[in-house]
Amino acid sequence: MIKIALLCMSLLFSLLGYTQNYRITYEFEIPHPEFPEKTEDYLKQHFTKEYKKYNQISEFLKMHTISDGNAYYTSFNKIMESDEYDSTTLSSVKLLVASVYPIYYNNGTSLAHNLLFSDRVVEVDNEDYLTWEILNETKTILGFKCFKALPILNPNKPNIKSSFMPVHVWFAPGLNFKASPSVFGDLPGAVLELENHNSTLRAIEVQETKEKPQIIKLRSGQELTTYEALDKRAQKAHSDYMDN
């Protein structure tokens, strides 16, 4: 009897300590470009063609988030390059959808890579950048009731590029775990839709998984940096390129 009781207690504790992991798949949509009034027709044609190509890529290129409840890992799936979708095109699309990726979020802090500078890992403390205003506006996504949340930028971060900050998100309290397609995941429920100034990301599937979030660790030669420092470095690199 004692052995049976101990076995039952062991099973009970294992069940209480069990947490289910989830995998969210997002698709993206890039809005049609808006052109200044005097834009030449050939430029309009070029960028309209690129816009169509980028949205066609969304049929194959998806973003996935793996969450264990408190931490999550977000990245793109891997797709084969082709004559139509070469590495430059794929990189351009990814940068429009997410300025930094992949992302590892844990306890309010995110670590993320950047395509342009592999020697730096961006560290983002959510509380340093924003607070969330949760609205009464709701809608249903994949059967889950979602609330709209607006980011309120902290006064000490006045010059953050719009591509880094979401315009708004829709999160599902019924999915009571941390998950987001961005570095900003400190919400009381998984983010199922996010709009930024370059694209919109929407969840198309939520499923249980045995996968675990990958942890981003500094490799030899890598250093932590802020998003602001990374952006300043990118602007300098662009300026140097244009001057040569």
Describe it.
With 244 residues, the chain is an alpha+beta fold. The protein contains 5 helices and 12 strands. The chain has helices at 2-16, 41-57, 87-97, 126-129, 227-243; strands spanning 21-29, 63-67, 71-76, 103-106, 109-112, 120-125, 130-141, 144-153, 168-172, 190-195, 200-209, 223-225. It has a 12-stranded mixed sheet with strand order 7-8-9-10-11-1-2-3-4-5-6-12. Strand 10 (190-195) and strand 11 form a beta hairpin. The chain is globular, with a radius of gyration of 21 Å. The N and C termini lie far apart (82 Å). Residues 5-18 have low confidence and may be disordered.
Number of extended strands: 12
- Gyration radius over CA: 21 Å
Largest sheet: 12 strands, mixed
How much helix is in the residues?
25-40%
Query: Mean pLDDT, as a whole number?
Result: 86
End-to-end Cα distance, whole Å, is: 82 Å
Order of H and E elements: HEHEEHEEEHEEEEEEH
Q: How many H/I helical runs?
A: 5
What is the structural class?
alpha+beta
Which term fits the overall shape? Answer: globular
Uncertain segments are 5-18
Beta content comes to 25-35%
Instruction: State the strand order across the main sheet.
Output: 7-8-9-10-11-1-2-3-4-5-6-12
